[in-house]
Design a protein that fits this description.
Strand order of the largest sheet: 1-2-3
Distance between the termini: 59 Å
Strand content: 15-25%
Order of helices and strands: HHHEEE
Largest sheet: 3 strands, antiparallel
Helix content: 25-40%
Structural class: alpha+beta
Radius of gyration: 17 Å
Low-confidence stretches: none
Number of domains: 2
Number of helices: 3
Number of strands: 3
Length: 106
């Protein structure tokens, strides 16, 4: 069996496993997040936009909205505030996207 050094799918699978394990076990979550970030940085793997906001940049904790992360829509930005360290991350979103109306015929 050949082992490839730059097997991005394998590293992505390991990252997903560590994120899942950190959600289940609160005692070891900091260690799992540390290992997951280390996998990504050592192999220079880029995450999709949705997964970039799973980990706080300053305290390296898993961000779970409603538990240790506050998510708000404010002035064209989606803001993620870590409740552990207070770090805020902003993502610009399109204001033209509206909620679906319940009106018939429009």
């Amino acid at each position: 069996m050949a082992i490839y050094r730059n097997d991005e799918k394998r590293f992505k699978r390991d990252f997903d496993y560590l994120i899942k394990a950190s959600r289940e076990n609160n005692n070891l979550s900091e260690r799992y997040i540390f290992l997951a970030k280390r996998i990504l940085t050592s192999k220079k793997i880029k995450l999709p936009k949705e997964e970039k906001f799973l980990i706080c940049r300053s305290c390296n904790k898993l961000l779970i909205p409603g538990v240790n992360c506050r998510v708000r829509l404010k002035q064209g930005f989606l803001t993620y505030k870590c409740l552990n360290c207070g770090n805020v991350r902003k993502v610009k979103y399109d204001k033209r996207i509206r909620r679906k109306s319940n009106r018939i015929g429009e």
